[in-house]
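I have been asked to look over a protein record a colleague put together. Alongside the sequence sits a line of tokens, each denoting a local backbone shape. Please read both lines and tell me whether the tokens look consistent with the sequence. I do not need a full report, just your reasoning and any doubts. I have pasted the whole thing underneath without changing anything.
>
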Amino acid sequence: MPTFLQRISFSFLLLTSTLLADDWPQWRGPHRNGRIDSDVRFTESTEVKKLWRANVGTGFSSMVITDEMLVTMGNVADEDIVTCLNATTGIKQWEYRYGEPLDANLFEGGPTSTPAITAGIVFTISRQGLINCFDLKSGELRWNYDIVKELKYNVPSWGFAGSPLVVKNRLYLNAGSHGICLNTENGSLVWSSSNDVDAGYSSPLIVNVDGKRLILVLNAKALSGVDFETGELLWSQRWITRYGINASDPLILENQRLIISSGYGKGTGLVKFDAESAELLWRVRDVRTQMSPGVLVNKSVFAIDGDEGDDPRLVCFDPESGEILWSEEDFGAGSMIVINKQILVLSETGELIVFKANSSQFKPILKVNINAGRCWTHPVIVGRRLYSKDSSGEIVCSIVQ
């Protein structure tokens, strides 16, 4: 019988180059799942000290870091700004501006997608659908592609939010009914999908199932399995959420299964899939991840349950059944990453909460304030440097000691 790694392997950002241990080159880290190996261990005596801060403009774009170059996005005076900073010092290396409305629709507005870096190239997408490609060192614009102008796609109510996925010379984005693919060298269109359904707000994933590569794309009404090469829709699993807000990335499990979850009362489901079909095995309403995906550790899922503003709770649940193993009530909204089975939550108030991934109980190891504004943006850790960013665009780089 094939092993799990033989059956399902994930081909994320850097298939053609070796990833440095201290790189965070794409949305949710090197493996696109919020997990990273590190020698950092948090204890009750750990100190988190601020090294530098910089403001890059309003928005919720997270940070990517390669070769000591940090790239993110913000908005000032109805201009999007792609900014590159020295990750060690915070000194600006370059910026690129273009006209884009702030579009503060029930939140502060600004970019919500996170850039991607591969082989010295940066890729970004704006909420209005402008894709840009830059040279990482110089900031020179190599090419751009306007998906609304070129493909006549509808812009989702809160704009395009999914972060780019780069695999070799292909760039995948959550746009249209089940994604688009561009050539990374020149921005030419490889394949596109219809405009029948608006895009969702999550980011595309790639999975290899029995030798066939699929792109997983969550639109406003369903999760789609798409042929990596051609863009052919292989299967669609219905998943309708109020307002079309499917924003939380699926979590991939063993044995060709995944967890799908959305807020606004929708809940969580277990989907079994292969290269030809998908089936929803169960659905519960007890866990509803509105924006930030949960994390899978030791065969348990840790996540924020509930919508922002409605006193979300922190939960640990069994992905096999959806049973909640424990909950921490009135925890508040936040986003999380995993370092060596320690979970780091950045709360929306800017507090860092660290706890061990334990399916029996929630026991904080450390709590410390590291940012002051509203923090929905995923934190990033590179080496011993921890990066947080609030809605105003204030990046705080802290050292973990």
About this structure: The two ends are 45 Å apart (CA to CA).
